[in-house]
Design a protein that fits this description.
With 16 residues, this protein is mainly α. Helix content is 88%, strand content 0%. It contains one helix and no strands. The chain starts with a helix and ends with a helix.
Length: 16
């Protein structure tokens, strides 16, 4: 379940 949190952070960084 930690992967979702890591992916969410990476996605936010990619969007910005």
């Amino acid at each position: 379940m930690m992967m979702m949190r890591l992916i969410g952070r990476e996605l936010k960084s990619a969007i910005e």
